Amino acid sequence: MRDKTQANSAAPGDRLIRAGAVVFFLGAVATLVTVAPLFLGAKPFPTYMFGLSMLMAVGFLVAGAGVLRSVTAGRRQAREAAPGASR
């Protein structure tokens, strides 16, 4: 039996995972920019830059939510495919 989903179709959590990766990357760049003056002996950046560093955690959480959404959609699809295996 052939699978009905196409290879290039987007799963339910794919957009969240991609958005989380982008936000995580922006947070990583902000962290590098914030920490660089400490090693270079330059004047530190303002406090809001440290807040931008928290984007790494936000991106990680958004990507994790996308993974959980993808897992639940996969479980739901598997449950619907096996009609006699309901709880």
Determine the number of helices (DSSP H or I, runs of at least 4 residues). 3
Strand residues, percent = under 5%
Q: Let me know the number of strands.
A: 0
C-alpha Rg (nearest Å): 20 Å
* Multimerization status: single chain
Proportion of residues in helical segments: over 70%
Protein name: Integral membrane protein
Keywords: Membrane, Transmembrane, Transmembrane helix
Transmembrane segments: 21-42, 48-68
Keywords:
mainly alpha, rod-shaped
How is the secondary structure organized here?
Elements: H1 14-40, H2 47-53, H3 55-81
Structure in a nutshell:
The protein has helices at 14-40, 47-53, 55-81.
Explain this structure to me?
By secondary structure, the chain is mainly α. It is 70% helix and 0% strand. The chain has helices at residues 14-40, 47-53, 55-81. Helix 1 (14-40) packs antiparallel against helix 2 (47-53) and helix 1 (14-40) packs antiparallel against helix 3. It starts with 13 loop residues before the first helix and ends in a 6-residue tail after the last helix. The mean pLDDT is 84.
